[in-house]
Design brief:
Layout: H1 2-20, E1 35-42, E2 45-46, H2 49-56, H3 65-90, E3 94-96, E4 108-118, E5 129-138, E6 143-153, E7 156-162, E8 166-168, E9 177-185, E10 190-200, E11 206-210, E12 221-223, H4 245-265
Antiparallel strand pairs: 1-2, 1-9, 3-7, 4-5, 5-9, 6-7, 6-8, 6-10, 10-11, 10-12
Amino acid sequence: MKTFLIYFATLSAIALLPVLTPSAANAQESSSKLSVTSKEFRYDKPYDALAIKSATKPSSQHDTEHSSSVSDESEEVHDAFDKTAREHKYMGVSKSANSITVNSVNEYWIYETWVTLHSDLDADGYHSTFSVEFDADTIFTSAPVYAVLYLGRNGTYDAIHVSSEFYIYGEDSTDTFTIESTLVSGFPSDDYDILLELYDADSETLVTFTDGYDDAALAYVPLESENNEYVIEDRVIIVEEHGGTWSLLSLIFICGVVVIRRILNR
């Protein structure tokens, strides 16, 4: 009889398992891989490095239309290669704040940064989209640079975006550059520190950086990836009684109880 009771309990548990399993289990992240999409802005407009370079490129009256076209195409290939090579160099690599070494002496600096938070769909205080605007200055009249943006916790940072090349002009306060990033996946809800590095585009050397120790705006930024943005909606659920899975399970359970009682009475 004991064997029969164990068998019946196991059968009932298996029958009820699909119904009682919470659907929230499927909401877990399938991968911890970091995924981020970013946009760049300058002078309140989307930044297109190739278009700006073509517009500001000096023209020569001796150049033919064909040679100009070939030159433009080769520059585009070169610029694309540089950006791809830089992304391979920095993206997917973690670094410690203690390992940062600047290879310039007071020639470049980041004067100020501004962080703006966007997109908090579930209103939990953690945002999946944010932008970092910064004003970089130099002792030179103009200099080509690019930036690498990192997010980190506990002193360890992961690169999330390598910017296009852009020029900074002396101590001009109007030449700010903005990186807007959307965290797609891989970022649990937490307070993150932002690290921003600036590189000389000609020498590929790190010339200056700023983080939460230099600027409080870059410390303890409440962020999370988009797949952690859950919106809970109020819904009215109407339950109609009808035959189905629950009726069958109830019938099985009642029959089992009756059989067990009869066996026990005997």
